[in-house]
Every structure is written in C-alpha cells, then in structure tokens.
Amino acid sequence: MRIFTALIPVVFILTWGCSSRVSFDNGSLSTGWEADMLGNGFESRYVDQGTDYSGPVRSAIIRHSSECGDSLRRGVLYIHGYNDYFFQKEMASRFADSCYSFYAVDLRKYGRSILPGQQMFEVRDMSEYYADIDSALKVMASDGIDSVVLIGHSTGGLTASAYVNDRKPARVKKLILNSPFLDWNMGPLMEKVLIPAASWIGGWIPDISIRQPQDSSYAESLLRSGFGNWEFNTDWKLKHARPVTTGWVHAITSAQKKLQRKADIQVPVLLMHSDKSYLGADTSLIKRADVVLDVDDMEKYGPRLGRDVTIKTIPDGIHDLILSMPDSRENAYETMFCWLSNGNLGKYK
C-alpha cells in the first residue's frame, strides 16, 4: 500500500495519548430508514455504536432492495476500503437486478458515519469494526435475509476476511474479495524493519502521527472531473491522503499477520485482482493497473485464507476492480455472478 513511500526517514509527529481496548457490542439503531444521498431506490440509517477512545462512534447502513421479492432471502453486504465510503451505485444495481438485496456499511469514522471532531479512518484493532458488521447483518436478518454474500474491497477485504475468520457468522455463506489488503506494498526495509517497528510502537502509543505522500493521481484517475468516469464526495474519499497513526499501522499489521499465519475461513472465497501492479508516473497505466497494492501478495497469501479459495485475475483492472474501464469492470461482474451461481471458475485463472 502506498502509505509509507515517503517515510524514509520515517517522520513521527507525536500527540500524546494512551491506547485503550474497548469491547464493542451490537449497536442500537438511532434512526429509521431515510432517503439516501445516492438517490432513487437507496435508503440509509445510522447505528449508535457507543463510545471508544475517541468519543461517540456510529456506523451507517445503506440498502438497495431487489425487485425480485423476498422469496430468495439472499443479500450482499459490501465493506469499503481505506479512504473510502460506499458510492458505487452501479454495483448495487447489478446485484439487485440479479435478485440480491444489496446492503453496504460505512464503517465508523468513514463517510456517512463521520462525526465532528473525529480523526477520519482511525482504528487501533480491526475487531472494532466487527460491531458495525454485526449491526448490518442484524438489520439484514430483520429484513428477512438469511443468506449473505460478504464483499470487501482493499482494507475492507482485510476487514471482511478477519471478521469471517474470527466470528464465523452462520448467515455469511460466501466471501468475495476485491483486491484485498493482505500485505504491505513496500520495499524490504519498510516491510522488514520500519513497519514492524511502527506497529510495535502503535501497540503502546497509538497516537503518533505518520505523514503520507501527497499524490492525487489515483483519485484523479477515478474522478469524472479528472480523467475518470466516477463522481464521489472528496471530503470523504480524499484526493490527498491524511496522516495515519501508529495505532492504525498496528491494527492493519496485526490483522494481516494473523491471516497469513493461521487463517481458517470456512466459507468459499473468491479473490479477484488485477493482472499487474504499477507504482510509476505513467497516467495511462494508472487506469489499467493496481497502483495501490502488489498483486503478487494477493497470489501468495490468498490461498492461505481458507479451505476453498478461488483466485481470478482481471486483466487491466485497477485497484477497485468495479471502477475499472468497461471491459475489465464487466469481466469482474461476470466473474462474481458466475462464481456465485456455480463456483466453477477453476482455482487459478
């Protein structure tokens, strides 16, 4: 992940604070369904998730119901990545048209869930997000859905994998990973020395701030106002990355190491990624490669996630495959729906 490429030497900006581990139980619904900002057919509601080390926290649930009726009792729950939120209307419509009621969660401190004064995206243990996912699954159950496909993109793929591995929720029947963040995309010095050091420090002093490189090329490759095809709220999905903390590094690294060493996901997994990664400056390749993560890491660690893992390469896909150029995007959708129908993609293609 291109978070620490400018951190040689590493710059720590110290803000004093102490780490606290908080037990996160299922939250309580704090609003009823209301029309969502995405427009016709989309609804959202908030869930009060209590308080953590930063004060009150909440999550948001978004839904787009299928017109097929409730007879199939099946749905999708989507988990966004880092510096992200749910805005992918096309994905919701594609699943709804295929008779899956579609739900997404904006995790605490992201997107719709951000509260005044919060540090965006901050987390100290990935299990903090489990209550947000639990709440969404509970809402889906109350809507009559008892068979759920969990989908996670990038850091959301890491979160979804950790959640299914740890919780083994009965209603989650399949897991789809869209370019999951299973390992850092750094050089040997960063991955072997500096990131482990920052992670260790983060377990004790989680509030040390770490600057990130200010590169807006990926955002510009997506935005219609740049040279992309999409529109999103750049106050929630920032063009320029904000600092992360040592606590955040600790949370990510700990979840990755656990999955790399002793994952036991018991539901079928589909892992999709681009055919190439690219960290250069050629803007033409930004629209045809993963410019955030290393696809070789996904090939390496993906098979370790569980007993039934299918890995599919999407030629010319970008980091978020469903925001790729039309041919690659359609390939990703066809892969997902074919796998959901019969699972017969072969293990490696």
How does the SSE layout of this entry go?
Layout: E1 12-13, E2 28-29, E3 34-35, E4 43-52, E5 55-64, E6 74-79, H1 89-97, E7 101-106, H2 130-142, E8 147-153, H3 155-167, E9 172-178, H4 188-202, E10 209-210, H5 217-222, E11 244-245, H6 246-262, E12 269-274, H7 283-286, H8 295-301, E13 309-314, H9 326-342
Parallel strand pairs: 6-7, 6-8, 8-9, 9-12, 12-13
Antiparallel strand pairs: 1-10, 2-4, 3-4, 4-5, 5-7, 10-11
Helix pairs in contact: 3-6, 4-6
Q: How would you explain this protein's 3D organization?
A:
Residues 3-25 have low confidence and may be disordered. Strands 2, 3, 4, 5, 6, 7, 8, 9, 12 and 13 form a ten-stranded mixed beta sheet that branches. Helix 3 packs across helix 6 and helix 4 crosses helix 6. The protein is built from nine helices and 13 strands. The protein has helices spanning 89-97, 130-142, 155-167, 188-202, 217-222, 246-262, 283-286, 295-301, 326-342, and strands at residues 12-13, 28-29, 34-35, 43-52, 55-64, 74-79, 101-106, 147-153, 172-178, 209-210, 244-245, 269-274, 309-314. Helix 3 (155-167) links the parallel strand 8 and strand 9 (172-178). By secondary structure, the chain is α/β, with parallel strands linked by helices. The protein is 29% helix and 19% strand.
